[in-house]
Predict the structure.
Amino acid sequence: MNTNYFTKKKETQMQKIILGITLFILLIFSGGSASAQSNLWATAYYAGWMQGQNNDGYLPAQNIDFSAVTHIVHFALVPNADGTLDASANSITATNSSELISRAHAKGVKVLISIGGWNSGDGYRGAINSANLSKFVSNIVSFVTTRGYDGVDIDWEPLYSTDASLYISLINALRPALNAALPNALLTAANGSEAGIYAQIYPLFDQINLMTYDMSGAWP
């Protein structure tokens, strides 16, 4: 018996299954229409601290291959518990924003500002309490419109099921505020393992990006 034949056949079948599942997921998130391919996003995260000189460890904006992406998420503002935003922690300077956005827009690429990152939960929780939520949303919208971004990416990490009410309150407040201030404003999220939260508010997002590496290990 040729065991190699059957092993390769099983591997091929498994590859087809995995490919089928992947395409199915893409169709779900793109609406499943016949024109879905034209609506697919290719998103890249670009850290502010990478915008140094053209040397080892840095990627200046002029060296980005904008033809490879449709959207860039500029990483990242840090949410403070008082509802303010820290742009200095990740070098989101006005110069860095302007350089990235102008080059991206010249190539037809949208740029969103990310808010959060790992260990941003405490800042988010404080910023979304009843005393600070309005100010927090206003600060986000002001930053987006002043710097010229096309939208916001919410990257609350780690996000727990106990954060559901706060997270939902933020998105319910932020979506209309963005729409009022910026035509065609984009709102996306970086989603880990708390799918139940997003199931309640997914229509308010333009895109939800799955951090699949968060779906294994001890933390789900």
In short: The beta strands are 43-47, 71-79, 85-86, 110-117, 151-156, 186-191, 207-210. Residues 3-12 have pLDDT under 50 and may be disordered.
